[in-house]
Amino acid sequence: MMICTLCPRRCGVTRDAHSGSGFCRLPEEMLIARIAPHLWEEPPISGTRGTGAVFFSGCTLRCAYCQNGDISHRNMGRTFTPAQLADSLRRLTDMGVHTISFITATPYVHRILETLELYRPPLPLVWNTSGYETVETLRLLDGVIDVYLPDLKHRSEAMGRLCARAGDYFDTASAAITEMVRQTGLPVYSDEGIMTRGTMIRHLILPGLTGESIALLDWVHDALPQGVPVSLMRQYVPCNNVDIKGLNRPITAREYKRVRDHMISLDLPGFLQERTSASAEYVPLFGQDESFV
Questions:
Q1: What is the tens place of the pLDDT at every residue in 177-197?
Q2: At what angle do helices 169-184 and 210-223 cross, to 10 degrees?
Q3: Bridge-partner residues for 34, per DSSP?
Q4: DSSP string of 166-225?
Q5: How many distinct structural domains can be found in the chain?
Q6: Domain range holding 148?
Q7: In a domain, 104, yes or no
Q8: What is the pTM for the complete model shown?
Q9: b/e 241-259 (16+ beta carbons within 10 angstroms → b)
């Protein structure tokens, strides 16, 4: 049983083995929706053989438009003990994946640390997150996580509040990303091009909000050391029955070009997604027998 203040919402509620009454509604024991090789992350994460992706149920942000709504909003998943997760990490390692990715794992930090005491894969460990993290929780991972893969979603208080009930999103995420970069330094890559250490920032362009995207890229350029890569994502499609005005369509080619050209003008290193990425077909299968190695 724990009194949870792990995420920026700092609910301070009790989470026991089977239930929780905080924002995420998660129990203390791990709920996991998928454990399998995943080929659709950035090239330095997935490489040619994939990342060993552990999709944790629940989310501390729960964006209205989330493409993984079944797990982020509705907590689909199966219970795992640290010993069971350690066994799964061994199987992923034996399958030859390049990295191990812990995805939306913040509510389970302590259980993950217990897991890694039982078995730490001899691979880069990736923390794939919404960016909505506390510096205090991230410091529990200092020296444990090799690569941070945070989102940087919203610049304005209004959009943070509208999309995720988190008006403090930018202030919180910018402090968190600064801490991630402090921990990891600039990226280091293996001979295969796999990131073995560092922080890569993801930004999803949203329809009608290219001004926010440009402001966020400016922040990365001005506030972080030169060389921190950005993955500029054009995959937005309306998901999760989103009913926010303006977010009911994909982005246009003109919107993408405006943000892409600004990123290039800033000379930010990183990656640009293909147009074909804007498809719900890339949403993995969650919660089924075949979802777990």
A1: 999 999 999 999 999 999 999
A2: 40
A3: 55
A4: -TTHHHHHHHHHHHHHHHH-S-EE-TTS-EEEEE-EEEE--TT-HHHHHHHHHHHHHHS-
A5: 1
A6: 31-291
A7: yes
A8: 0.96
A9: eeeeeebeebbeeebbebb
